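pls design
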């Protein structure tokens, strides 16, 4: 399908964001470094043969991906598919149409695919031959990191262009343009400083969101002045961006904040993830893992608390289940930390991977097996301290230390007990 009508023909009744879509390159805000002479996008605009066969425009919502695709298509046949609704049939139909146009009329086709990360592997595979043979010039837009969402063969044939959200200066310039442009509000309203700053804050670098809020605020303006009150009427809360790329950053920050015992940062990132739509079960699982990996025996209650929080969140659901996750987050952030279990497991796994295993000591073998038990097993409960000198590790690993407790929390006491246990175990049999 064709993407949009010519912007010059857009109705005055269209949304402000559509009316103000840049019609020339000079109107694009925030991507100046990508549009300098010699840059790949500039070469494609100039119809140079050295332009890349495919471009992936990667950036947050409202940064201008669709606008750049439209501008790049100037003078070429332009087609669009939305990965939200299109399937392999639509992809193949567009490729065959492009093949006909190129062979019969010499017309180049730009195929723009929005939200390309929503295409599955088979749908992305269907694009490869046409990209490779230059049947189409593919321009794909995605808000998610191409390294995770685009198949490797297509990624290797594409130039990935990372776009940035509007900075505050760009956002301020866009507000001024919207207020004064004949395609915008045409000086019908003014805006005070506080309202301007509030709009910029709420937009989070998203030009479309900024213009949507501005248009709504203009409708609520009193005496021709957009105030903070008008902005509040247009948007009563800030939306949280949480695409796949931010997913990894925010979850990483969450876990590192809990590990680092910064309870305030931990709460911030937890709620930011929740507001962004993160699955509560995923957050609960991460806390359960952390309870053993980063707290461990320093406070074994952390595992009980996180497991209970996971069950509570699943049972209660949102939003009340959020309390349980905050509860577990605060407990883990303030708990004494130890990665002794993590280190013990890693070292034991490394020995097993190197085949440093040896035979099971004779005194530990199953006496009911066909070969019988060759050694004498000493029953620990028969001895005063419940521990008796014996060999438990295989011969090559005798004396190996995997678990070395810290002096944090309960592990300080455990460390003393372990010293005595090892002293008895290593005594004369």
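designed seq:
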């Amino acid at each position: 399908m064709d993407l949009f009508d010519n912007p010059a023909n857009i109705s005055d009744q269209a949304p402000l964001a559509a009316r103000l879509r840049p019609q020339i390159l000079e109107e694009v805000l925030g991507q100046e470094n990508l549009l300098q002479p010699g840059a790949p996008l500039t070469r494609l605009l100039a119809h140079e043969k050295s332009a890349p066969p495919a471009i992936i425009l990667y950036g947050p919502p409202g940064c201008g991906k669709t606008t750049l695709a439209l501008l790049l298509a100037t003078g070429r046949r332009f087609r669009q598919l939305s990965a939200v609704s299109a399937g392999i049939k639509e992809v193949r139909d567009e490729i065959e149409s492009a093949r006909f146009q190129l062979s019969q009329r010499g017309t180049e086709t730009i195929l723009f695919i929005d939200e390309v990360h929503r295409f599955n592997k088979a749908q992305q595979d269907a694009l490869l031959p046409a990209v490779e043979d230059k049947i189409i010039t593919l321009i794909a837009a995605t808000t998610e990191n191409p390294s995770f969402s685009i198949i490797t063969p297509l990624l290797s044939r594409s130039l990935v262009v990372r776009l940035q959200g509007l900075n505050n200066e760009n956002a301020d310039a866009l507000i001024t343009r919207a207020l004064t442009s004949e395609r915008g509000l045409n000086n019908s309203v003014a805006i005070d400083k506080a309202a301007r700053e509030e709009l910029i804050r709420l937009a989070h670098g998203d030009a479309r969101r900024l213009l949507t809020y501005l248009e709504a605020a203009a409708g609520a303006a009193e005496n021709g002045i957009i105030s903070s009150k008008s902005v509040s009427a247009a948007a009563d809360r800030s939306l949280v961006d949480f695409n796949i790329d931010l997913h990894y950053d925010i979850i990483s920050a969450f876990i590192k904040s809990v590990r680092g015992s910064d309870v305030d940062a931990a709460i911030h990132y937890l709620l930011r993830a929740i507001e962004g739509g993160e699955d509560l079960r995923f957050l609960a699982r991460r806390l359960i893992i952390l309870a053993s990996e980063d707290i461990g025996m320093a406070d074994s209650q952390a595992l009980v608390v996180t497991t209970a929080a996971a069950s509570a969140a699943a049972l209660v659901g949102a939003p009340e289940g959020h309390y349980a996750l905050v509860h577990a987050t605060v407990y883990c952030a303030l708990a004494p930390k130890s990665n002794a279990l993590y280190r013990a497991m890693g070292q034991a796994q490394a020995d097993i991977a190197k085949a440093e295993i040896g035979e099971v000591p004779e005194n530990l073998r199953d006496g009911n097996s066909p070969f019988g038990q060759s050694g004498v097993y000493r029953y620990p409960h028969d001895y005063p301290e419940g521990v008796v000198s014996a060999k438990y590790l295989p011969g090559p690993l005798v004396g190996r230390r995997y678990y070395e407790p810290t002096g944090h929390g309960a592990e300080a006491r455990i460390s003393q007990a372990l010293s005595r246990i090892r002293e008895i175990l290593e005594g004369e049999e």
